[in-house]
Design a protein that fits this description.
Elements (H helix, E strand, L loop, with lengths): L2 H31 L1 H22 L17 H7 L5 H10 L19 H13 L6
Helix pairs in contact: 2-5, 4-5
The structure holds heme C (HEC).
Length: about 130
């Protein structure tokens, strides 16, 4: 191999390496700025999990997010309560009750949801107002 060819192949190698390094850097930089959309993706995934849970527990037979059905729209519920009311809501979901939104009672969901599930749903429902478009 003559010297010209050697220099040429080293140059090619050099260019190859520096491009891959700068591509790598560009990608790690991109990952950092992606973290906000990633959070949104996570929130969307949580919404879906919670809707699936609500559906599997029969809540959606009476509740919708933004329309009154037999029970109040969960967005309305969300506007009325915040973090300090979670215990109240957990009890209400489990024991049922009447009189806050009208004359139609919510039947007890004891045996349908565990306290942990009721707590997850209550915590999620009160966050809905922050997601209203
Ligand atoms: C048979 C219909 C029905 C089902 C099923 C039902 N609800 Fe309700 N829900 C109601 C009604 C009616 C009210 C309004 C009660 C009132 O006015 O006090 C209500 C009220 C609520 C409230 C607001 C409570 C308050 O005091 O403001 C929450 C939160 C709630 N439901 C969550 C749930 C969850 C979670 C489930 C599923 C585990 C569920 N509901 C299943 C009918 C239902």
């Amino acid at each position: 191999m003559n010297i010209k060819k050697k220099v040429f192949s080293m140059l090619v190698l050099l260019i190859f390496f520096s491009t891959s390094v700068s591509l790598l850097l560009a990608q790690t930089g991109k990952k950092k700025s992606d973290s906000a959309p990633q959070k949104q993706e996570q929130a969307k995934a949580d919404d879906k999990d919670m809707m699936d849970l609500a559906n599997s527990k029969g809540c959606l037979a009476c509740h919708q997010l933004d329309k009154k059905l037999i029970g109040p729209a969960w967005l309305e519920v969300s506007n009325k309560y915040d973090q300090k009311d979670v215990d109240y809501l957990v009890n209400k979901i489990i024991q049922g009750g009447v009189g806050v939104w009208g004359n139609i009672p919510m039947p007890p969901n004891r045996g349908i949801v565990t306290e942990e599930e009721a707590r997850k749903l209550a915590n999620w429902i009160i966050t809905l107002k922050s997601k209203k478009k």
